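Give me the 3D structure for Amidase.
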Amino acid sequence: MTDALHHLDATDLAARLRRREISAREVVQAHLDRIEQVNPAVNAIVTLDAEGALAAAAEADARLARGSEVPPLHGLPIAFKDTHLTRGLRTTFGSPLFADHVPDEDDVVVDRLQRAGAIRLGKTNVPEFAAGSHTFNRVFGTTRNPYDPSRSAGGSSGGAAAALAAGLQPLADGSDMGGSLRNPASFCNVVGLRPTPGRVPPQPGGDLWDTLSVPGPMGRTVADTALLLSAMAGPDPRCPIALETPGAAFRVPLDRELRGLRVAWTPDLGGAAPADPDVLAVLEPQLRVLEELGCRVDFACPDLTGADETFRTLRAHSFDLALGSLLDTDREALKPSLARNVEEGRRLTTADLVTATATRSRLHLGTLDFFSRYDLLLAPVSQVTPFDAELEYPQEVAGRPTETYLDWMRSAYLVSVLGVPALSVPAGFTPAGLPVGLQFIGAPRADLAVLQAGHAYERATRHGRRRPGLGGAR
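Predicted structure for Amidase (474 residues):
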């Protein structure tokens, strides 16, 4: 049985663990064996705590044997994103400046997941300071796509997505500013949710009012993703934007009748984010699936005027706040594209920030109006398919040259500005065998409705069941 444990759904594993059909130690060992076999080809997990994981698994098994009540993630192994602090375990942020950094505290997300029973395996790879949607850095190198190791796994949660797809872990945490959960999920044929800001509270410190970057869950299925969200979400008095809904609200069956759902489809976000033809060739036939499920599908999109400038302004400002001091003291240690973005933040004026804030407020009100007429918005997750892993970013999108490393990410980051939940669900493959994701976008705080719609689509299509051909196992 242990040969197949690494590809079982997390919900299935959790149920078997509770019934004592398998032990936590068996589950952890199966994933450690898989990591040894496959990780060298994908470079997804960059720090491993095998001894600690096996010890934690033994404790979990003993707890269950004593008849103690066990939490929802009991016995499930997870490697945490290498931007999330892990007490006593190296957290590098993908930067040479922090190559040997060992925190003395856990991030909020890490703490919540371990309290929910998850077992720490190690850390997953990230771009330097999570900047960009291609996972490479000078500390650990490049994470590669399990479906084609010559291609990018996306980012910034690229190590997390590749580890999921390759069977190295059943669940993964991440974060998303401009698509860092959704883009790698799309590239690696797994599921990634950018929750409503405040659904999962961030680590205290920095800008506690920030709604652009949010922590969130990934899984191989929508149900697995909802299970992880249930352990991540919930109020936190230290976070002024934290939502009061308890995480347990997402630990429910996702089955829902979609008949009569009003669905909008936009292939390019109203012209703001043109996608490559091979992306649209996969996605456009998926509309028929939604229609067969009883949805009414129209071509429509919210007015996104000003969203691009707003995102870039707020992003540059956030990088200046977080990394400006490093630009002064260790500029050569920052990758050039990151240094340039910090510099852009420094050049911003008060008028720039006021304009961005006002535009975002207008976009929010327009989004509310749009979702009074539609229940769901569908769009590409990424404008391109997984690209050459040796490039920093694609050199063109839809036949047009890219000018910056952000240009190909608009289909994800324009949605970030709206403050809404957005879910990437596997939608099929190109003729070359490269995964493509479909983005399910809902009204603010409608995270459960988005998960339910994605779950129904997933069950109707089963695209996520196609595994990569690594290590002789699918």
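The radius of gyration is 21 Å. Let me know if you want a second pass.
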